[in-house]
Amino acid sequence: MPVLISLASWNPAHQGLYDWLDRRLTVDYPGLRAPATDRTRRSWARALLDQKMILPVLDGLDEISNAGRSYAIARINEALGPGQGIILLSRSGQYSEATSPHTDPGVRLAGAAGIALCPLRHDDVAEYLRRSADGSAGARRWMPVLTAFSTPTPSAQALTTPLMVSLARTIYNPRPGEHSGSRPDPIEMLDQARFPDRTHIEQHLFEGFLRAAYRQHPNPTRRCPWSPVQAEHWLIFLARHLEHNLNGSTDIRWWEISKAVPSITFALAVALASGLAEGLPFGALAGVVAATLVGLATNPRSNVPAQRIRWSRTGATRLGALLVLPLILGFFAGVPADLTESATPRTLLARDKRSFKILTSAAALFVFWVATASATDATSSGGKIAFGALTGLLWGFAFGLRQTQSARFALVRYWLALRGRLPWRLMRFLSDAHEQRGVLRQVGAVYQFRHVELQRYLATRGSTPRV
Asked: Which residues pair with 336 in a beta bridge?
């Protein structure tokens, strides 16, 4: 059975092809995560792969980084056994570069026959655009552009791929309840002074798509709470975050937003908040202690969110080098979430929040009890309570940060929102971009831009004003 799988999330330097396919299939098809009935403890996905009952259709070799394409082809050759079929999809230019003798001699997909897909036929494009143009009046607006298809104009060259045609439809054709006259006239694409070549047309369609996706809806109940300028600014930040902080990854994981802020900035922000909360001069000491604890906790126990709590002897944190107390707290641990489960980003965040609250409360109460019990007799009862409360809160917060991801995500999100880099309600914005705007798509517990070319276009955009 042929199964289409995007290669964008594969890192051939760290994962073998079949290990990655097993994990990818269980994300996209949760039913294949169950153990097979042959007592091998392998998943149904891996069993089907091993029995050659799945024909992987690997889409997007060109979406892997330039340096990794040749290596990816080599890893595919290593993984394929006798009789195993595979289909590898790529843009011809990028495939030629990956297999060119000038870059890596001899890297070829073993035993492969090449099939070149033809561009979309102009008749099919014309029919698609006219059919969604809101009647004959809207269809007539496309006539100059469609007539120009008979000549090699930039617009005729650009409107030959499904992505560009769908972007043009979103920009120039009305939604239900809108009139075609309220949309820009597609005849502007024939202005060769503005758009001298295909690249300029494609950039225009990417830019216009975001404005069209976030325009106000005629139905008041579906009005977008963000302006196109705001949405574009925030999406540019996310695209740059993926390209520069996550090495070109296509997955928008909410728990990795913290990588957009240096750890020292994160620790100093917590120190400042703690100091202001306690007041001077005691606040200065509280700030130093908070910065130290948070600085040590910024290297989390797991790189994925927690989904529940368990007892764990191996959960003892590195803070045990400072006090015996963390060794005791180390018996509590957050269980890292299994990203192959069919959880949504919001579900994963809610589970991690619940784990953070339980872990932080348990640690804070225990430290409060120890701190108040160990205070000297000369200390007043009020002083003991204040000392125990402050110590418990700081240790509990640091312990929660160490074991989970949601608190770190919240602090970084607020910091970036204050600086205008992201919206205050980031998860709502991402969900809306997926469900209402068609800018993002959801793959399991992560979001992705609907096409890697849109992500790369936004990542290369010039600086935008603070929103």
From this structure: 306
Q: Residue 238 corresponds to which tokens in the numbers above? A: 């996310």
The percent of residues in the chain predicted with pLDDT above 90, rounded, is 22
Query: How is residue 15 annotated by DSSP?
Result: S
Is-cis flag, bond preceding 281, omega within 30? yes
Which of the four pLDDT bands, split at 50, 70 and 90, describes residue 336?
low
Name the 3-class secondary structure at 308.
strand
Q: Is 38 exposed, middle or buried (0-12, 13-18, 19+ CB in 10 A)?
A: exposed
Query: Residue ranges of the domains in the chain?
Result: 2-98, 122-222, 224-467
Lookup: tokens for 308: 């529940």
Question: Using the 8-state DSSP alphabet, how is residue 330 labeled?
Answer: T
Residue 141 CA neighbour count, 13 Å, CB half: 24
For the stretch 340-353, pLDDT in tens is 454 678 888 888 88
Question: Could you tell me how far CA 127 lies from the centroid of its own chain?
Answer: 35
pTM: predicted TM-score of the whole model, two decimal places: 0.71
Q: 411, 422 in Cβ contact below 8 A?
A: no
Tokens of 34: 């169950």
Pairing of strands 55-59, 87-89: parallel
Angle 196-197-200 from CA coordinates, rounded to 5°: 90
- CA neighbor of 329 nearest in space, from 370, 290, 294: 370
Check if the beta carbon of residue 420 is closer than 8 Å to that of residue 232: no
Record the tokens describing residue 190, joined without a space: 């024939």
Sign, CA dihedral 408-227-448-419, equals negative
